[in-house]
Write a structure and sequence with these properties.
binds guanosine-5'-diphosphate
Amino acid sequence: MMMLTKKMIEIRSILQMIGQSSALVLPSIVVIGSQSSGKSSVLEAIVGHEFLPKGSNMITRRPIELTLVNTPDAQAEYGEFPALGLGKITDFASIQKTLTDLNLAVPAQDCVSDDPIQLSIYSPNVPDLSLIDLPGYIQVSGLDQPLELKQKIADLCDKYIQPPNVILAISAADVDLANSTALRASRRVDPRGERTIGVVTKMDLVEAERGASILSDRKYPLRLGYVGVVSRVPPTSGGLFSRGSGNITSAITQNENAFFSAHPLEFGSESELAVGTTTLRKKLMHVLEQTMAASLQGTSDAIHQELEEATYEFKVQYNDRPLSADSYLAESLDAFKHSFKAFAESFGRPQVRELLKEELDQRVLDLLAQRYWNKPISDLTPAPIEPDPLSDLPKADPESLYWHRKLDASSSSLTKLGIGRLATTVVANALQSEVDRLINASTFSTHPFARQAITDASSSILNERFYSTSDQVENCIKPYKYEIEVDDNEWAKGRQNVATVLKNELNACEAAEKSVESAVGGKRKLKDVMGFIDRVKKGEVVLEGDGVGGGGGFSAALLAKGREAVFLRDRASTLQMRLLALKSRQCSTKTNKYYCPEIFLDVVADKLTSTAVLFLNVELLSEFYYNFPRELDSKLGRGLRPEEVEKFAREDKRIARHLDVVRRKEMLELVLGKMESLRDLEGREKRREADR
Ligand code: GDP
């Protein structure tokens, strides 16, 4: 039967791990008393060590939940602060120091805090007990103490002296019991004195006869009775048992026994009075055991209830889906790799080719604009001696050196663009942004840690391959820098392709002009400002300061929009003109390449693309597809420690809740199992006692 408290204390520590709800609180003994009533001395006599904060100005500011665990086979005595993770502390002076620091950490203006300090003490010399030490009641607030301190302490104590807790009410023998704050507080919550143990300290300070009459008090009857103690460490032993070392219990009890046996008449066995720390310890064990036993059914019901709630939540919210941090990570990683594989299958040579060709199409458009389409900038200079590339192009003389040079220079600009770098960058960016997209679509999207790890994995592979890939590509396109052969088929294909490119560009120009129109506030307004800009261009009007301060009745902003629209309109009309040229008979054969630079440059771009793609595929794509999943495994799979996996999973609030429910359910099942076997044990004990 005496195992009950121990088992219940074990159960309580499990419940504490899962954040017990108030329904699951197991009974404890709460210790109350006025300041200097000898409260600390009583607790220290039970523990056998001085470990509580002392000092004239030291009031306890936080409750101390003291768990005593009897370890019969152990040699060492030690304490542990489970919430602080400081490990085993064998030096009780250091426990005292830690408690003092924790106390001082409560800001003075807060007075007291109801956040309890948990302290467990393991020793072969302590009984299994669960005690809560509360701040001592103060009579008058000191000058330097906030006025409300007294009230706050009383409120805090009131919170703890509720059922099912047992109240240990400490009063000093040299103070009239009628004035005992502890007894008064206990009577308010336990008027019939059913769960209060009275402790009368400092029995040595009053006449034995008077002491005896206090203990046999009838004015404040308590069912659990009064115990008289002398729990001060005897002064003579001070040197022998210096603070913090050695066990003081026997020194105290010897001193105490000497006192009580010196007054056999008052305190002898005839008197039937309960005296001595040893008696008190036994009483505490017995009473707590009884209280625990009485609360077994209730606690068990409460745990049942909690378990049912957890099970229900698990079913409704999580569809009974089991989950652990490990399985969550493994599933997420699998799903991610799966989605990556699907992407890898859909993004191969043809897709890279398309991507790259689009990029080069843009470069070709830029080159054409720069070298053929744009009219000379200044409208005021006399007509250029050289032909106007745009308007003279249709009549270009294939024998003229001018057109030869122009086309050669254009195609050489294209081949010397730095295709190696450009192509590698385009593909690497595409891969990186696809990885980002996959992350966003995956469960990893809510996990900053994994997100970073995946991004790092892909960028490290891409960076590593970058230079060798771009060098390879550059080397392979080298021949095109010197000579470009075009056959009829290529010409026909280029003619078709570039027409599409120009059409798309034309659509884009028209759309852009529309959006300028709506930004300006209508067709009419835009037409006005465009007309003005056209006149400026023709030199019919002069625009002061290039229109910085506005002009012609238009604001600077409006003029800027007008210029944009004029540019777009002119570009659109150029494109239309060139589209017509492309369709013409002149452009149908490769012999006329000087008439149709668009087609020729497209063929060049196409050749560059095909060659680049060949090497990109081998050097970058295949390498990436092979290495990326392996890199993921090492960064997010086997490479992670269990606590990192847990931390990762908990980054997602939903998963953290799910894990909590699973864990809570498991813990409650464990606890319930333990409770049930305890109740069986208790039932058997009862029957045995009845049989006797
Ligand atoms: P607390 O403020 O209630 O925790 O009281 P303490 O345990 O610190 O005791 C206050 C003072 O009373 C200290 O100086 C103790 O040495 C003294 N004291 C405690 N118990 C006894 C006792 O049984 N007999 C005597 N003579 N003094 C005691």
